[in-house]
Amino acid sequence: MIDGLLILLFFQFLGEVVIRLTGIPLPAPVVGMVLLLIALLLEAPFTQRVAPAAGALIKHISLLIFPLGVGIVLQWHRYEDYALALGVAVVLGTLLSLVVVTLMLKKLLGGKYQETGGKDAR
Amino acid sequence: MLDNLDDLASLVHTPLFGILLTLASYRFALWVYGRSNSLPLFHPFLVASIPVIIVLPLVGVNYEEYREQTSLISFLLGPATVALAWPLYRQLHTVRTVLTPILIATVIGAVIAAAIAVGLAWWLGAPPEVVGSLAPKSITTPIAVEVVKSTGGYVSLAAGAVAITGIVGALAAGPIFRLLKVTDHRIKGFALGLVAHAIGTARAFEYGEKAGAFAGLALGLCGLVTAMALPWIWPWVAQYL
Question: Do A65 and B81 touch (CB under 8 A)?
């Protein structure tokens, strides 16, 4: 657990260093994530030990997020004028995206990339 | 006596209070979610918010102060984002044979999901900050709350929009797949992960391991592509808002 946390914080810090050196407009944790992914793919020593801490953080991601989300209700005065636009964009936008993305995937994953079978395929 | 009571009341203005309230609400939400057999409508994000929204105004703590109190919890979003590399790494193996169409699908899908949300909000007259908050709504929350800083949006609005997107996506997936006659579990999983991130991924696992793996991959790749692209593209989009 401690090893994993150490690795995560180290790569986030690396992300900060890269951003400060290069000035690219990306979030530091995202750069850290890319660097960790590269390290994992290159089988860098110790990186596999990230698993327990990574698993725990991802499993309880809602705990880390919802304190931000309550702001929608507690600061509703900021958003009430755009309630309709928000509701439509979020709900209808999601339904529309799901339909379009699914249709695109049917095109892309058909033909020569068709599912080869297996128990899971039906 | 009155002095003691005042002393007691000031307890609500400590980080201990904020964190205790947050953790207790989350524990309660996990219990509700378990009892509901993991129904997306009872997702911990929604249920955990309710006690906090009720208690904070009652004890006279405003949202800014609560954010301050719980900054320790928010801090963990950084390492949690870095942690997403792990499932991504694990799932890259399982899809090696279809990697090319998957990568193409990710890029197109990420653009579609963001463009539809931005387009609708803009068309209905939302101001730039609100439109900017919705741009990352299909990507996983820890990345979305980082990315929204580069689109000039509100963090709390982005977090909420992401959660509701996940819930709507997970609820609508079944009927939509039936309507479009989708039987391929890879497509179900990938579409869910791409549009509805972590909540969609949880839903995808109900179709089986394969759907779940594709959803997890889509979640990771879509978050990555959006986070890498949006900060560069946004200044160009923003000038038309």
Answer: no
Q: Which residue has the tokens 């379009």?
A: A100
Q: Which residues of B touch A89 (CB under 8 A)?
A: 117-118, 120-121, 124, 126, 134, 161
**Does the ipTM exceed 0.90?**
no
Which burial class, exposed, middle or buried, applies to B82 when counting CB atoms under 10 A from its CB (0-12, 13-18, 19+)?
buried
Q: What is the C-alpha separation between B105 and B132, in angstroms, rounded?
A: 23
Is any Cβ of chain B less than 8 angstroms from the Cβ of A48? no
Q: What whole-number distance in Å separates Cα of residue B157 and Cα of residue A71?
A: 7
Q: What angle do CA A4, A7, A9 make, to 5 degrees?
A: 110
Question: Could you report the per-residue pLDDT of A20-79, keeping only the tens digit for each?
Answer: 999 887 888 888 988 999 999 999 988 889 999 999 998 888 898 888 888 888 888 888
How far is the C-alpha of B60 from the C-alpha of B56, rounded, in Å? Answer: 6
Identity of residue A104: M
Burial class of residue B72 in the structure, from the number of CB atoms within 10 Å of its CB (0-12 exposed, 13-18 middle, 19+ buried): exposed
Q: What is the pTM of this model?
A: 0.83
* pLDDT tens track for B123-181: 998 899 999 999 998 888 888 988 898 898 998 899 889 888 988 998 899 999 999 99
Q: How far is B5 from chain A (nearest CA, A)?
A: 27
Every domain of chain B and the residues it spans? 2-75, 82-238
CA distance B82 to A36: 7
Give the dihedral of Cα atoms B236, B118, B87, A109; nearest 10 deg.
-100
Going A95 to A97 to A100 to A105, the CA torsion angle's sign is negative
